[in-house]
Amino acid sequence: MNEQQQTLWQFMSGQSDKLLGQTLQHVGLTFISLILAIAIGLPLGILIARKRKLSGTVLGIAGVLQTVPSIALLGFMIPVLGIGAKPAIVALLIYALLPIIRNTYTGIIGIDQHVKEAARAMGMSKGQILLKVELPLAMPVILAGIRTATVINVGVATLASFIAAGGLGEFIFGGISLNNTNMILAGAIPAALLAIILDALLSLIQKMDFKKLRKALYIFPIVILVLGGFYALPTAYGSTLTAGFTPEFMGRQDGDLGLKSTYGLKIHTIVISDAVMYKAAFAKELDVISGYSTDGRLKAFDLKILKDDKNIFPPYYAAPIVRDKALKQFPELEKSLNLLSGKITDSIMTDLNYRTDYLHQQPERVAKDFLISNGLYKAPKNGHNGTVRIGSKIFGEQYILAEMYSMLIKGNTDYDVATKTGLGGTKICFDALMNDQIDFYPEYTGTGLLVLLQPDPKIAKEMAHDKEKTYDYVSAEFEKKFKIKWLKPIGFNNSYALMMRQKQSKELDVNSITDLKNYLDKN
Amino acid sequence: MIELKGISKKFGDTQAVNHVSFKVAEKETLVLLGTSGCGKTTTLKMINRLIEPDEGQIFINGENITDQDPDVLRKGIGYVMQNIGLFPHYTIAENIALVPKLLKWDKEKINSRTQELIQKLHLPENTLAMYPHELSGGQQQRVGLARALVTDPSVLLMDEPFGALDNVTRTSIQKEFKALEELKRKTIVMVTHDVQEAFELADRICLMDRGEVVQIGTPKELLYQPVNDFAKKFLAGQRLALEFKVVNIQDIWTYLPKEIIQASESESADLSVWDAMELLRNNNQSELFVSGADQAIKSINFEQLTKGFNQYQNAQLHE
Ligand SMILES: Nc1ncnc2c1ncn2[C@@H]1O[C@H](COP(=O)(O)OP(=O)(O)OP(=O)(O)O)[C@@H](O)[C@H]1O
Ligand SMILES: [Mg+2]
To answer: A386 alpha carbon to ligand 1 midpoint, in Å?
Structure first.
């Protein structure tokens, strides 16, 4: 425990630059969107307090917008606003809108009628009544709305890292993909603290009496503006090409770190989620991305893999990993899973992925078609001799594999099958396996080595480029450490790869990572 | 001078005010009197355009108020609300300074005027920095009054200004109020449903019922020449006390005993019978000296006072 705490502290102090940067970005994102939400929400709230007939419609729309899931909202923004700060700010703004409009409205209509009448009777104009009577009296309620919006925004801003807008989400989601608890905590703890501190500060302002509140209200906009200003866009980098790497790739020795140390690659990099990365490359928002070599979108978006001429990306051969206990419980399981071994090559996998990711065919159908054409498909026996639980990570290839295994088990054994697909990243999937939530899932040798085992960097380096050595090492270590067995590899190698648009690669004559480095150095 | 000509106002199906007309002369105090819901507040609010009438016209100093910008009009009219309506987020000083600030008075002038008012209205100095909720109901009403008076408007509208007070406090505030020199220069329309208060403060009373004017006249006229049963019944319960109040020593002068010639101090004959009785009681005197319009001085005791009053009453009834 003590060791764990210390390493978290070490991690945070080692990454203090990044941490500070992300925290400032996070605060900046939260407050820029807050300023905009106030600039839009406050007048709207005032408007519907004046014209109450409109209130139902306006509050209804703001309410509906708020129920759109945040990831979906970010996704909708990309075609319109691209990636980066703009869509993130707009999405955050939309979430912050409802509490601000609603509280402005209820704050104003809740003011004692007699006080409003007194203001009119004294000869105050409509504007004076608004500024000197209505807004000050509604302020505690409006501040409560701003407080709610701030806390929501601190939370949602963690998702901004999905679309390359930075913030503490980079650590959180990077940590989840990298199975790095310290990294997750380094992002999650500051985010939680930020929410708690801002909440406490705003509740203090909210509870002030009128005299202090008036002073605070002069300071408040200035503070918000300054905090919003923290979000300086990370554009001052100077390279002509822009790279978009996933949080996972950013933190890996066989990722961005290796690109820097082995190739000396210097490129303006933004962090972005896998889900939108390919689209962003296609839309020319990004020039170089970190993809997977069997990804169907490679074909769909006409991207080209740059040759890894210095071999920094280790092999990622896929194979099912099964708990020993499950193998004992289901004696026929191993045999049926191994039916797939050696059957799927890189190009076949890319094609299968293309069919799901781009042609939007159901993974089930793609799996069935493949099994039939390879003579592996058998009608389900509908057996009830226990249930095998299959897990999969949250991307297309894993869904397809899970479907194939499900059909193979149903067709060749008397077991029933339960699939638990879409288990986030490697860490979530592996934890599910360790905790007996699933019986097996398809894993990759490289991930097993570098993410799950995390051996001495020297051992890792020695082994990482040899397909056989890696497989043997992870097999032995998993058995020893986790009581988990690696079955035979399926055949394809889904390794990391840098990719560019075909057209741009041709124009710039960049075919390998070394070409890319040379091009960047020259331009 | 204020003049209402055929003013009517309907709220939905309720005829709140129905063809009301009256004139209030310069420096006169007109009291709108009537039961709850008879349209007093509505009538008053139409004078500063807080409510616009459906029908009729209102003139202030000869000018139709609909021709004026409502905000400008209201800044020129003092208004004391039925519910006080102080700004809870302003200190007492800021509440009082509200209209002067709108009129861009300088600080000095606002300060000295505020000081003057809180002295006249007997508000403790330290209340200036307080917020309305820290004051008693009576103090709040005084602040409401100060706010209406601060710019010394020539027209003052007051809606039950002493409504929220207990009887004892109300009587003392009414007295202070009546004694305020600056109110004597103003044209005042005041609303009340309290007959005693109306008689205490009014030059003339406008008795209303169900949105209509029943009778307009001096307190004495209402007492002795009621136009109908409603007017008679409205005053019936407190008749005697009211009569003591409206009748003064001068009225009953001829029914008092013969005059004496020498006295060092004497009360004016404007003194109401009620007040004279109170003086006799409170000061534990058996005799009171009053000087009539002709400078003659009479000495009266309680018995002579009631006797004179009764004779006067009889004379009125047989008129
Ligand atoms: N804004 C309004 N909407 C609807 N009806 C109203 C409104 N204001 C007043 N009324 C109605 O008009 C009538 C007269 O009301 P008003 O307030 O003038 O009475 P009031 O004589 O001042 O009574 P009180 O002594 O209780 O203050 C009442 O029946 C009241 O219900
Ligand atoms: Mg009223």
So the answer is: 79
Beta bridge partners of B55: B8
User: B19: phi > 0 → left, psi -120 to 50 → alpha, else beta; which?
Assistant: left
A71-106 tens-digit pLDDT: 778 777 777 787 778 888 898 999 999 999 999 999
Single-letter amino acid, residue A216: A
Given the candidates 3.30.300, 1.10.287, 2.40.160, 3.90.1280, the CATH classification of the domain at B247-317 is 3.90.1280
C-alpha A265 chain-centroid distance: 25
For B85, left (φ over 0), alpha (ψ -120 to 50), or beta? left
Residue A213 resides in a domain: yes
What are the structure tokens assigned to A433, written together? Answer: 């396996």
| Three-state secondary structure of A104-166 | HHHHHHCCCHHHHHHHHHCCCCHHHHHHHHHHHHHHHHHHHHHHHHHHHHHHHHHHHHHHCCC
CATH architecture observed for domain B2-240:
3-Layer(aba) Sandwich (3.40)
Number of domains in chain A: 3
| Interface contact flag, B87 A118, Cβ < 8 Å | yes
Cα first-last separation, chain A: 49
Q: Which of A465-469, B4-8, B35-39, B219-223 has the lowest mean pLDDT?
A: A465-469
List C-alpha distances in Å: A512 to A289, A310, A517.
Answer: 13, 9, 9
Q: State the pLDDT confidence band at A476, using cuts at 50, 70 and 90.
A: very high
- Apex CA A254: angle with CA A492 and CA A71, to 5°? 80
pLDDT in the model for residue A262: 86
Quick check: CB of B6 below 6 Å from ligand 1?
no
Question: Residue with the nearest Cα to atom 30 of ligand 1?
Answer: B37
Residues 6+ apart with CB under 8 A from B295: none
Report, as an integer, the average pLDDT of A368-388.
91
In a domain, A502, yes or no: yes
* Mean pLDDT of all residues belonging to chain B: 90
The verdict on A38 and A117 lying in the same domain is: yes
Full domain range(s) for residue A159: 2-232
Q: How many residues does chain A have?
A: 523
Same domain, yes or no: A376 and A296:
no
Judged by CB atoms closer than 8 Å, whether chains meet at B71 and A123 is answered as yes
Contact B85 A115 (CB under 8 A): yes
DSSP annotation string for chain B: -EEEEEEEEEETTEEEEEEEEEEE-TT-EEEEEESTTSSHHHHHHHHTTSS--SEEEEEETTEEGGGS-HHHHHHTEEEEBTTB---TTS-HHHHHTHHHHHTT--HHHHHHHHHHHHHHTT--GGGGGS-GGGS-HHHHHHHHHHHHHTT--SEEEEESTTTTS-HHHHHHHHHHHHH-GGGGGSEEEEEES-HHHHHHH-SEEEEEETTEEEEEE-HHHHHHS-SSHHHHHHHHTTHHHHHHHH-BTTTTGGGSPPPB---S--EETTSBHHHHHHHHHHTT-S-EEEE-TTS-EEEE-HHHHHHHHHHHHHHHHT-
User: Does position A235 have pLDDT exceeding 50, yes or no?
Assistant: no
The ipTM value here is 0.86
Helix A16-50 with A85-109: angle, nearest 10 deg? 40
Pocket test for ligand 1, best of B14, B189, B194 (most atoms within 8 A of CB): B14
Q: How far is the CA of B160 from the centre of ligand 2 (A)?
A: 7
- In the numeric block, the tokens 């065919």 are attached to A361
**pTM, full prediction:** 0.72
Radius of gyration in angstroms for the set of CA atoms belonging to chain B, rounded to a whole number: 22
What does the pLDDT average to over A476-503?
A: 92
Partner-chain residue, chosen from B50, B99, B102, that has the shortest CB–CB distance to A117: B50
B72 contacts in chain A (CB < 8 Å):
123
Check pocket membership of B11 for ligand 1, CB cut-off 6 A.
yes
Tokens of A339: 């039916």
